Amino acid sequence: MPDRLSVPQHHFTEDFELYQAAEILGTVGTFRGRTALDEVVSELRDAFDDVGFIPQDVHSFGPLAFLVVVRFTGIGRSSGLPINRVIAHVWRLSLEGARRLEVYWELADGMRAAGLSE
Asked: What residue spans of the chain are helical by DSSP H?
């Protein structure tokens, strides 16, 4: 069975960047290259069990630019506490593939980054 959090690397540009908000434990910073998403998911799996990202809504804000409202779920490995939170993914694409993903802990921050109002 394929990993439900995996995206084939050929869908990303060679210079793909993933910016991860500081509030998402253990994965803050900018990750680069086609393996960036896999690196972030691996780090999240170190901190959480049953990690899930469930798209809730999609908003286009320009050519090949989208804000995806995502429900982030998991169970803290150290604490055992569940997480079930709406976050924002801001995707910027090109004809060659995904170029940048910005992950925001607060939906309002993601909406501002996308130039959208709440």
From this structure: 36-47, 107-113
